[in-house]
Design brief:
7-stranded antiparallel sheet, 38% strand, 3 helices, globular, mainly beta
């Protein structure tokens, strides 16, 4: 488990909050570069760090770091070109006391590949979807708080959301992403509208019970063995807000 990770951080100020963490769009082909967009939706008061090499025991891993739990929502292991992302699911919003944080899952995914499940105890964890993109395959796992299922996805463009099919984001957006170029066309789609109080929007802003839950981060990742290109923004709907780094 990565340095500094803490357990059971899924209560922010003691209240439940909407657990939809992000939207992921992936374009994958066997032996090619994995291309993806990740939009992180979170309480605006939850602090985090931009992508970097944050984990001393995993010096070849790059990702944004959640300061509450020490984990991440998206990690890439640069030498292997493997990227893993975790999305919250609505079935079990909060983990049991002492259960691992979902933020450890991308770190385990890039370290162990499809064998990540052998390195964590899922009992008591909050529900999630984990996406793993490697040069050889694209796999998703869904955990509803009780049962873990997996699926191998074919070549092409795919969308995974924390709300599942009920938020209808894929119906609304997937065709446009499939038809557009990466990264410029995908970034243009993200910038097509400001944050909205709409679960089907790409970038959102919801105010509930004195809390603001919104899109707080966006990143465009292209990963291949030995090379990572990552563009990121804390206001991804604004064209001038993006920073790009290339790591080899």
């Amino acid at each position: 488990m990565a340095t500094g990770l803490r357990r059971n951080p899924d209560v922010d100020d003691g209240r439940r909050h909407d657990a939809r963490v992000c939207t992921v769009v992936l374009r994958w082909s066997a032996g090619g570069h994995a291309q993806l967009l990740a939009l992180r939706d979170e309480l605006t008061t939850r602090e985090f760090d931009d992508p970097a090499r944050w984990w001393a025991d995993r010096p070849d891993v790059v990702g944004g770091r959640d300061r509450v739990a020490g984990g991440t929502w998206c990690a890439t292991r640069v030498p292997t070109g493997t990227t893993a992302l975790v999305l919250n699911r609505p079935e079990k919003r909060l983990g049991d006391p002492g259960a691992p944080s979902r933020g450890v899952l991308p770190l385990l995914g890039v370290a162990h590949g499809a064998d990540w499940v052998a390195h964590v105890d899922l009992a008591g964890m909050a529900s999630f979807a984990l996406v793993l993109a490697t040069p050889d395959g694209l796999t998703t796992w869904d955990f509803d708080g009780d049962r873990l299922t997996s699926a191998e996805l074919p070549e092409g463009t795919h969308m995974v959301t924390s709300g599942g099919t009920e938020d209808r984001k894929a119906d609304r957006w997937l065709g446009a992403f499939a038809a557009d170029d990466f990264p410029d066309g995908w970034r243009t789609l993200v910038q097509s509208a400001p944050p909205a109080d709409d679960p089907g929007a790409l970038v959102v802003r919801h105010e509930r019970d004195g809390l603001i839950y919104a899109t707080v981060f966006g990143q465009l990742v292209e990963a291949s063995p030995g090379r990572l290109r990552c563009a990121y923004s804390r206001r991804p709907w604004e064209a001038a807000s993006w920073t790009t780094v290339v790591l080899e």
